[in-house]
Every structure is written in structure tokens, then in C-alpha cells.
Design brief:
Order of helices and strands: HHHHHHH
Structural class: mainly alpha
Low-confidence stretches: none
Helix content: 55-70%
Largest sheet: none
Strand content: under 5%
Shape: elongated
Mean pLDDT: 87
Radius of gyration: 19 Å
Distance between the termini: 12 Å
Number of helices: 7
């Protein structure tokens, strides 16, 4: 069975619920923030475990059968996002805990926020290097076939997963107050914008030439 990003869709959906919760909870009252944080963490954990199983299968396929065909190589970046967005969500959820809680668990454990912020950062750094390892494999796999890949919708996998990696890098840099890490995140942002523009041009050109999203031309034409 070839590697396809569909393997990660169930995990991604649950994980992004946790990511959205980390963005929303901080602006809510304690009565609303605490349920959002707890449910967001639960969904994040559920999604991450599903994605981790997929990552194990992904690595096994690489070891047993080697990298996928050139047109599917961008999919190698999909696992990067599942790891990186977990770092983003964990740190974000810890930061979203009310500073002066008056509701639920955090009301009786006011020291929990500071403790969980430290734990989330250290776990985030722990996972960041794993994301970088998968990212490096994906980069090497794609660089080796530069010039052999015609545009396909899989090229969008260059963007979304790596946005998560960039966000994780930026958040870790801010927490550690590290200018070098923040410069790396800024460089990643510039590269992502450049690749996004390339994908936009390639997508429009491929549609115009009838190479994608036309009858018999989609990625599932042989299914």
C-alpha cells in the first residue's frame, strides 16, 4: 500500500481541534476557558496517538519500500505537521489557563499554570527535534527528485504541515527568548511564502492546461 496523506486525516482533524482550543480559550471567561482547555487537550491527545501510529507505519514503508514515486514525494511532509501542531497546541493550552482562576480544577490548584507552562515547553522542545528529523527526511526525499515532479495537488503538502513546524519553532523561540531561533522561524516564514507562491502559480497553470481537476486527471483516477 503506498503512503497517502489520507492516513493522517482522522488524527489531523482531532489534533486541530486542540490547536483551535488553544487559540480560543485565552479570550474566554474562566467558566468557559477551563472546559475548552480540557476538551482541547483530550482531542489533541487522541489525534496525536492516531497520528503516531500512522508515523510508525510511514517509517516502516520508507524502510521496506523506499520513498514514494516523485509525484507523491510532497506527502512526506504530512507527518511533520502532526508533530509540530502538537507542540503548538500544548504550549498554547498551557498559556490559556486563567491567571486568576475561579472555576474548576485550576481554582484549587492556582500553581498549575506555571507548572504546566514549563512542562509544555519542555515536551514541545522534545517533540520539535522529532519533527525536524521527519522534516529532514522529507527535504532529502524531495530534493533528490527536483525537476522530475510535475505539478499535482500533493504539492500543497509543502505548505500546511510546514506552517505548523514554523509556528512551533517561533513559539519555542519566544518562550526561550532566543533571537537565533526566532531568526530561523523568520527564515522559514519567508521560504514558506515563496513556496506558496510557486504552488499558486503551478496550480493555476496546471488547471489551465487541463492537467489536474479535469476528468481522468485527478490523483484518484486509478482507484
Amino acid at each position: 500500500m503506498p503512503f497517502t496523506p489520507a492516513m493522517f486525516l482522522a488524527g489531523y482533524s482531532a489534533m486541530l481541534t486542540g490547536t483551535v482550543a488553544s487559540l480560543v480559550a485565552g479570550s474566554q471567561s474562566p467558566e468557559r476557558a477551563v472546559p475548552i482547555i480540557i476538551s482541547g487537550l483530550a482531542y489533541k491527545g487522541f489525534g496525536w496517538l492516531i497520528s503516531f501510529v500512522c508515523i510508525v507505519y510511514f517509517v516502516r514503508l520508507l524502510l521496506d519500500k523506499g520513498p514514494p514515486p516523485p509525484q507523491l514525494r510532497p506527502n512526506l511532509f504530512i507527518p511533520v505537521g502532526s508533530i509540530a501542531y502538537t507542540t503548538v497546541a500544548l504550549i498554547g493550552l498551557a498559556d490559556a489557563i486563567p491567571t486568576n482562576p475561579s472555576y474548576g480544577y485550576f481554582a484549587s490548584h492556582p500553581e498549575a499554570k506555571q507548572i504546566l507552562q514549563v512542562v509544555a515547553l519542555f515536551v514541545g522542545i522534545f517533540m520539535w527535534l522529532f519533527a525536524f528529523w521527519v522534516f529532514a527526511i522529507a527535504v532529502l526525499g524531495n530534493v533528490s527528485v527536483v525537476g522530475k515532479m510535475s505539478f499535482s495537488l500533493t504539492w500543497w503538502a509543502f505548505i500546511f504541515p510546514n506552517v505548523g513546524f514554523m509556528l512551533a519553532t517561533s513559539i519555542v523561540g519566544k518562550k526561550l527568548e532566543s533571537a537565533p531561533i526566532l531568526w530561523v522561524a523568520s527564515t522559514m516564514t519567508i521560504l514558506l511564502v515563496a513556496i506558496w507562491l510557486v504552488c499558486i502559480v503551478g496550480c493555476v497553470k496546471a488547471v489551465w492546461q487541463g492537467k489536474i481537476v479535469w476528468p481522468g486527471k485527478d490523483e484518484d483516477k486509478d482507484m
